[in-house]
Amino acid sequence: MDVTQELADYAAANSTAVLQRANPVITDPGLLAAFDNTPVDAEEYSSNLESHLLALTLTSTQALIASLFTLPTTSSSSGPITSLPAPITLLPREKPLPKPKPLTKWERFAKAKGISHKKKDRDVWDEERQEWVARWGKGGKNKDKEEQWLHEVKAGEEADQDPAKTARGERKARIAKNLKQQAANLAAASSKPIPISSLRDGPSSKLSKPSRSLGEESQETKKAGRDKRKAELERSMLISKTSTASLGRFDEKIQGEPKVKGVKRKFEPVAKTDYSGEKESALNVLKRIESGFGSDKKRSKKGGEGAEGGLNVRKAVRFQGKQDRAAGKSSSGAPGKKGKRK
Amino acid sequence: MSMLRTIKPKNARVKRALEKREPQIVENEKTAIFVRGQTSSERVREVMKDLYALKRPHAINFSRKNDIHPFEDAASLEFFAGKNDASLFVTGLHSKKRPHDLVFTRIFDGRVLDMIELGVEAFTSMADIPSPKSSLGIRPLMVFHSDLFDTHPTFQQLKSHLLDFYNGHPITEMPLLGTIEHVVSITAGPMNDAQPDALPKVHFRVYTAKLLSSGSRVPKLQLTEMGPSIDFSVRRVQDADPELMKAALKRPKLAKSDVESGLGKKKKNIETDAMGDKVGRIHLGKQDLSKMQGRKMKGLKIHKERAAANGGDDGMAVDGDDE
């Protein structure tokens, strides 16, 4: 019985022999990885693949083990713990880096003034009851005034007023004010152009703006943003006002409602001191008549272009169809005016 | 992502769960989803089972078939990624044109980052190799052989994919004794000069590692095949969008204390030598030899009276200018 092959296999499987490498194996202990950049030996690869793979793995893993076991360690109750360095190989993240949270108006103010945040305890000491009570919420201290059984009526106050009701109204007004401020902060955060710091982080970081941190924007940019928001709001309001059947004619007026500004016609003054432009304007009129003002060519251009300056295809097709029909009838050629004038 | 409705948390538990899914500076380990297509072969299913066993516990196995063709339409992968907060996918497929097909997909920010398609040419499962297996949740060592992983773009991507799959989550510290159990070895065959277009096979092997005492600090290593043993052929590749990849490779700025403790960038001139001792190098400035005290002699002494006289003359000159 020949067992030489089996013995050789066993020896190979239990060997700790390491191959000679021309280039040293690159290790990345932070990821527990090693990279052997030496080209694979084609002859060994084709003749005995498995043992060659084992030998290669043994070589590179031994190098990795060597780099791992020379790292600094700290002792613990369960044995030494090796601290690993940061990985060298760059691997993609799962999610983008978190964006900085937009500051609220108060936070911006506090930052500018250098006011540090003081955290309020949720509970306060109640001297009368001799116990800790919540500052707000169930059994909160802010409701003391409305829940007390006796109220002092000061001189000059109306006799029929309910102090408990007034206190409650004041508290509810504070809550409403806070909610309004929260909503305003949210609106400002969402309408604000994306913070510069996150633009730099983001994928489309083509904008090279001065690196100014959040919260210290200039007054001009703030004002521009405010104006823009205001203009948008006014525009949408005007649109909504004219969206009724009567075009807003019978709607109630809102306080501070923006006025609708139409296009004003301009007339030349009859008596002028300077008549130099008159000849030119008269010639312009003639030129427009000569070039066929009001003809098909001109009309096709009128309103024929889209918002972005491209051709309004639907309109062009419609127009072409109209022209063809007119040519078929062999009528006057120029199609009639569309729609009624308002 | 757009297919998922945005959930507004109604209680604190849901809020915490949603916050966990938001982008973090230090990320959690990536979860892999193993999903098979409408048609898959026995071999592909077996391969996926073994890859899943190696990836557990950060893996989800979908037991049902799904009509997925990642290279044609990856919308359902993005949907699954959003639902399960996972960013790695292995899709098992089988067709006449591409038999025993595995597609590795990576997701970044809810969108497909890149994909690579591998064909399973040969396979021996973990169960078919009678040897002890690694424990659950143990991180493997990963070794890559061949210059192609350094030079060829497709193989670079494959390396990135596989490294990301098993060892992508960086750890800062680990006990070495008892936590090294197995090695994942990935080898690309040599390039065939006769057919330069054909990409060589990639051999995926897993060995259990045994550390033997060697008398020095570094132990000796002995390997036994554990399985699975897979021979892959590289098929289609979808590269990452450069802008998306750039965003995915962004590293967070670490806190100053972390940088000082050596987590962030490499400290200059401080090294740890082979014995684990800290060695520092100090650079001194150039020595000013002109001020060096040479040998003292009586003749070279500066007399006090002469020095004072020189100073007095200067003072007089200044006064003269003023008048």
TrEMBL record, chain A:
GO biological process: ribosome biogenesis
Biased composition, class Low complexity, residue ranges: 176-213
Keywords associated with the record: Nucleus, Ribosome biogenesis
Pfam families tied to this protein: RRS1
Disordered: region residues: 136-259, 290-342
Signal sequence segment: none
Domain of life: Eukaryota
Biased composition annotated in UniProt, kind: Basic and acidic residues: 141-173, 219-235, 249-259
Xref: InterPro entries: Ribosom_reg (IPR007023)
GO cellular component: nucleus
Subcellular location: Nucleus
Function as written in the Swiss-Prot or TrEMBL entry: Involved in ribosomal large subunit assembly.
Family: Belongs to the RRS1 family.
Designated name of the protein: Ribosome biogenesis regulatory protein
The organism of origin for this protein: Kwoniella heveanensis BCC8398
Biological classification of the source: Eukaryota, Fungi, Dikarya, Basidiomycota, Agaricomycotina
UniProtKB/TrEMBL annotation, chain B:
Gene Ontology terms describing biological process: maturation of LSU-rRNA from tricistronic rRNA transcript (SSU-rRNA, 5.8S rRNA, LSU-rRNA); ribosomal large subunit assembly
Keyword Iron: no
Keywords noted in UniProt: Nucleus
UniProt xrefs under InterPro entries: Brix, Rpf2
Pfam name, any one: Brix
Domain Brix: 30-243
An MF annotation (GO) of this entry: rRNA binding
UniProt-annotated location(s): Nucleus, Nucleolus
GO cellular-component term (any): nucleolus
Family note: Belongs to the RPF2 family.
Protein name, per record: Ribosome production factor 2 homolog
Source species: Kwoniella heveanensis BCC8398
